[in-house]
Amino acid sequence: MFDTVLVANRGEIAVRVIRTLRSLGVRSVAVFSDADADARHVREADTAVRIGPAPAAESYLSVERILGAAARTGARAIHPGYGFLAENAAFARACVDAGLVFIGPPAEAIALMGDKIRAKETVKAAGVPVVPGGRDPELAEAARDLGAPVLLKPSAGGGGKGMRLVRDLSVLDEEIAAARREARASFGDDTLLVERWIDRPRHIEIQVLADGHGNVVHLGERECSLQRRHQKIIEEAPSVLLDSATRAAMGEAAVQAARSCGYRGAGTVEFIVPGGDPSSYYFMEMNTRLQVEHPVTELVTGLDLVEWQLRVAAGEKLAFGQENITLSGHAIEARVCAEDPARGFLPSGGTVLRLHEPRGDGIRTDSGLSEGTEVGSLYDPMLAKVIAHGPDRATALRRLRAALTETVTLGVQTNAGFLRRLLAHPAVVAGELDTGLVEREVDGLVPADVPAEVYEAAAAVRLDALRPRGEGWTDPFSMPSGWRLGGEPRPVTFPLRALGDPVAHTPHGTHTVTDDQVSVTLDGVRHTFHRAADWLGRDGDAWHVRDHDPVAASLTGAHAGGVDSLTAPMPGTVTVVKVAVGDEVTAGQSLLVVEAMKMEHVISAPHAGTVAELDVSPGTTVAMDQVLAVIEPHEEVTE
Fold first, then answer.
1. Which of 20, 169, 603, 613 is the 20 to 30 A CA-CA neighbour of 584?
2. Left (φ > 0), alpha (ψ -120 to 50) or beta: where does 597 sit?
């Protein structure tokens, strides 16, 4: 076994790998950019090396800096986690050339399976069924031959980045261009392939493990059908869809796919499965790394996949065969992401002001967060994973919903409350899943309004702040009672804003306010919230309730956030500007593209008019709600 391993990643996966290194008695080395100097993975590692200044994303992609950090600390091996350099064949080769062990598959296997086009051809030759499709350079022609709907996918990477479902082939060229931009930004390669889209499909993947001595096993399947924008958000093991015969057949197909590329280490073979006919499964791709959702496999098999990655990389044989693999109970994982469900799940950001991560019987939380963590727009939005295990699926679901209720991440908007409601949806409870379920049901899972008790709690905090502190005599005129000489008391009213229009709220219930909680009782019902600064949280949901200054708002006008202004829907970077000042635009015309956390958002004209102001250019970093442009409407002509 290695004595020192460098973890070439950050966030929750770096913390998770370090945990196993510690359990094995292996010295861990973290790397960090200036933006991550006090991050949790840095503090938990045995030692850490600075690899670059902010902005930080490029630092973690620098092969030279990573290898230099390994040389300076005496590391013998490098674990890439996932993302960044995990599926980079050139990095794997560079590690070997530097005399280091890359904890992952051979570079040749990464290159082969990283090219989805070659991967499909290779596994097809090995007898694994594949989805009908086509590739560059005849991409558009292949799409039209397949007929709508079709799915565009980057050849060089996964994780949903750059994937586009096209149901109307009249917009195919525009969708191809957008997919290429996202693929280039995420993977440095804009090569695409196209596949026939299977309506109401289920996404089921098989975990494989291979050593360097010819042994390959599968560890059962994971159901990953609950997705948004082709991104997995809930994963579970095993799948309720598969019987033992289908599980064995898919597992054998995954093993053959791994053998076909000379695989070594932990990997995942992903299949698309028609929900009505699980025996008709198709190979989609192979991920040549540890998957985000690997904890559910660990909990049902009792195996530490990171430990076996290390053992295989150190030259050990697998200590078990296929006949020794058994699945015990059920495990479900929820990905907690920095995104705002109330704003269409746009990426969010900020400073973590208060944090509580659930743990306990049957609950595991993998996280890279700590209070004070700055969440920016450079990285993937996933912050943490909450995983539940139980003797059966119903118990695991119940435990996970309860754990998400306990999850508190104030200062950064997350999807934890949304995930809790999704896990209670009747179709999810019944196991009737498909990859489109979330999109069909999303409107019913996102509350349309801010509950009245939220404004009551926010007002209670402000009222409490007005009360005089200290002992002895208190000036009665300093009490926020609303008392007036010679008149009826006038209650104190607070102008507040959370979502939508501002609210003038007068507290009228009973309140208890502490440094980290506020409780209010309305109509005999007590509501308790976690609090930090202007943030309130409950049951996984959070609200940023700010003071609203009506005078300041009235002075802003159209040119500073008014009806004619286009503002940034999320913190991010402007990547495309399609207009200039003075241009005439039509309603709905695409004007700008803002990217955050590898996701593009198109800014369109709200109405026909003229571009009066344009305050950004490609490469401009913007804050949420920052004014990007102003469109002066055309005057209506009346006869």
1. 169
2. left
- How does DSSP classify residue 310? H
**pLDDT category of residue 480 using cuts at 50, 70 and 90:** low
Q: What is the pTM of this model?
A: 0.84
Calculate the alpha carbon distances from 62 to 46, 301, 377, 439 in Å: 22, 36, 19, 37
What fold does the segment set 105-131+201-328 form as a domain? D-amino Acid Aminotransferase; Chain A, domain 1 (3.30.470)
Write down the pLDDT at residue 93.
Answer: 98
Q: What share of the chain is helix, strand, coil (3-state, %, to 5)?
A: 30, 30, 40
Query: How many CA atoms lie within 13 Å of 281's alpha carbon, on the beta-carbon side?
Result: 27
DSSP bridge pairs for 78: 6, 102
Q: What is the pLDDT of residue 562?
A: 47
Residue range 229-254: average pLDDT? 95
* pLDDT for 559: 41
| Residue in this structure with the two tokens 């241009």, named with its chain if needed | 583
CA distance 507 to 462: 10
- For 561-633, CATH number? 2.40.50.100
Q: What is the DSSP string of 188-244?
A: S---EEEEE--SSEEEEEEEEEE-TTS-EEEEEEEEEEEEETTEEEEEEES-SS--H
CA distance 149 to 151: 7
The answer to whether 408 and 536 have CB atoms below 8 angstroms apart is: no
Looking at the domain 329-446, which fold is it? D-amino Acid Aminotransferase; Chain A, domain 1 (3.30.470)
- 557: number of Cβ within 10 Å: 13
pLDDT at 639 exceeding the cut of 70: no
pLDDT band at 54, cuts 50/70/90? low
- Residue 64, number of CB atoms within 10 A of its CB: 9
Please name the CATH architecture into which domain 132-196 falls. Answer: 2-Layer Sandwich (3.30)
Q: What Å distances lie between residue 629 and 347, 567, 603, 626, CA to CA?
A: 20, 7, 10, 9
DSSP-derived letter for residue 415 is S
Contact between 491 and 508 under an 8 Å Cβ cutoff? The reply is: yes
Residue 169 DSSP symbol: G
Which CA distances in Å does 223 have to 152, 233, 295? 22, 11, 13
Fold of 4-103: Rossmann fold (3.40.50)
Residues of the chain with CATH 3.40.50.20: 4-103
At how many degrees (to 10) do helices 294-301 and 305-313 cross?
90
The dihedrals phi and psi of 209, each to the nearest 5 degrees, come to -140, 125
